[in-house]
């Protein structure tokens, strides 16, 4: 379960992590009043559950309350990777002396929590990992053993921070791990963790909580707002989005892509009985991912009806701003009706998963 930045910051603050002064605003008037109360320059930050908002123009800066009003008016209603901005965080601007990156995530290959920390904060950490991996300190933890403050300070030392900051940075790393552990998170991240004259402050906050643990965190259920929680959804490092109705079918579709030389960009299981609206939401979700070049929709209709799938596809194609090639394997319940709907709209389809996967790979290769 993903939660908004302002919600993550509330949790961080309750666990001793300092964050900037901020106020959530739903209207330009509220943002203007918040800026007036702070009486200092502010950042206006779109509250969306997708990454890349800064590059998409979802963060603006205001020197005065009137500028805060104008910035909020511009941001509300904006589409960022398929998600509409419905609220903003009005946050004091910080005098930044230095920036760091700190995160704790589940490393599934090692079956352990992984702390990653770097002196290169405030930038795309994937780019740092790709171009200068030596700048990232990685530290696996034994989940059966207590993580102690001295271990956190050792991570800070390996990062290369100034000796006078080792205790402070180590303290932040230790506190972040406590949040990660206490809330059964998949990832807890601060990027950037900034150094100011007043000390270290978490200028941003990301917290993704394991859905299977929510029975232990009933107080967090009210925070569930992510539309992708309707699906089993995982982003991968490939360029062909895979959507299927059923985990086994989706995984098989991914295997087929690999067999023909393709790389999956997503795993998205819409489940059984998906409606036309769910199909449309799933397609919009993967299309909004900028690394997706082709979508492979793999549907074997049982409870899911082929005509609902076809209507959902047509809805997305008529409204989508991105022109992403779509390869459809459609068979099963009401398949004739579904196939006629696609034919009438001029959309091709396949009845064989193998041929559809091969076609998706060929189209993607042709775009490179």
Notes on the protein architecture:
The chain is α+β, with helices and mostly antiparallel strands. It folds into three domains: about 20-90, ATP-grasp fold, A domain (Dna Ligase, domain 1); about 100-210, D-amino Acid Aminotransferase, Chain A, domain 1; about 230-365, Succinyl-CoA synthetase domains (Rossmann fold). It is about 35% helix and about 25% strand. The protein contains eleven helices and 17 strands. It has helices spanning about 5-15, 30-40, 65-75, 125-130, 150-160, 165-180, 245-260, 275-285, 305-320, 335-345, 355-365; strands at about 20-25, 40-45, 60, 80, 85, 90, 100-105, 110-120, 135-140, 185-195, 200, 205-210, 230-235, 240-245, 265-270, 295-300, 325-330. The strands form four sheets. Strands 7, 8, 9, 10, 11 and 12 form a six-stranded antiparallel beta sheet that branches. Strands 13-15-14-16-17 form a five-stranded mixed beta sheet, sandwiched between helices. A four-stranded antiparallel beta sheet has the order 1-6-2-3, covered by helices on one side.
Please identify the top-level CATH class of the largest domain.
Answer: Alpha Beta
How many domains, as an integer?
Answer: 3
- Secondary-structure-based class equals alpha+beta
Give the overall pLDDT as a whole number. 90
Quick rundown:
The chain folds into 3 domains: 21-92, 2-Layer Sandwich (Dna Ligase, domain 1); 98-212, ATP-grasp fold, B domain (D-amino Acid Aminotransferase, Chain A, domain 1, 2-Layer Sandwich); 228-367, 3-Layer(aba) Sandwich (Rossmann fold). It is built from 11 helices and 17 strands. The protein has helices at 5-14, 28-38, 65-75, 125-131, 149-159, 166-182, 247-259, 276-287, 306-319, 335-344, 353-367, and strands at 22-25, 42-46, 59-62, 79-80, 83-84, 88-92, 98-107, 112-118, 136-140, 185-196, 199-202, 206-209, 232-235, 240-244, 264-269, 294-301, 326-332.
């Amino acid at each position: 379960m993903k939660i908004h930045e302002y919600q993550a910051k509330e949790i961080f603050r309750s666990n001793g992590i300092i964050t900037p002064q901020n106020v959530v605003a739903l209207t330009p008037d509220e943002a203007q009043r918040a800026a007036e109360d702070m009486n200092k320059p502010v950042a206006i930050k779109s509250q969306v559950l997708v990454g890349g908002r800064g590059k998409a123009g979802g963060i603006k800066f205001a020197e005065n309350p009137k500028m805060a009003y104008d910035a909020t008016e511009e941001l509300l209603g904006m589409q960022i990777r398929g998600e509409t901005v419905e609220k903003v965080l009005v946050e004091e601007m910080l005098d930044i002396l230095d920036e760091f990156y700190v995160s704790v995530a589940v490393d599934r290959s090692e079956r352990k929590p992984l702390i990653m920390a770097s002196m290169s904060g405030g930038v795309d950490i994937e780019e740092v990992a790709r171009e200068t991996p030596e700048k990232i300190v990685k530290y696996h933890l034994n989940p059966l053993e207590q993580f102690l403050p001295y271990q956190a300070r050792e991570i800070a030392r390996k990062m290369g921070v100034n000796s006078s900051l080792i205790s402070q940075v180590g303290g932040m790393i230790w506190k972040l791990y406590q949040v990660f552990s206490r809330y059964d998170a998949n990832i807890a991240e601060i990027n950037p963790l900034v150094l100011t004259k007043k000390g270290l402050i978490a200028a941003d906050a990301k917290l993704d909580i394991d859905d299977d643990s929510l029975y232990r965190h009933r107080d967090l259920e009210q925070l569930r707002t992510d539309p992708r929680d309707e699906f089993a959804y995982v982003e991968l490092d490939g360029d062909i989005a895979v959507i299927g109705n059923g985990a086994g079918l989706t995984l098989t579709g991914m295997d087929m892509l690999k067999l023909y030389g393709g790389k999956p960009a997503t795993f998205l299981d819409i489940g059984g009985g998906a409606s036309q609206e769910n199909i449309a939401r799933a397609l919009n979700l993967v299309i909004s991912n900028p690394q997706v070049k082709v979508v492979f929709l793999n549907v074997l209709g049982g409870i899911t009806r082929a005509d609902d799938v076809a209507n959902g596809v047509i809805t997305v194609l008529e409204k989508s701003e991105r022109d992403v090639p779509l390869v459809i394997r459609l068979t099963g319940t009401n398949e004739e009706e579904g196939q006629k709907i696609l034919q009438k709209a001029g959309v091709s389809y396949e009845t064989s998963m193998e041929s559809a996967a091969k076609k998706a790979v060929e189209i993607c290769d042709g775009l490179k």
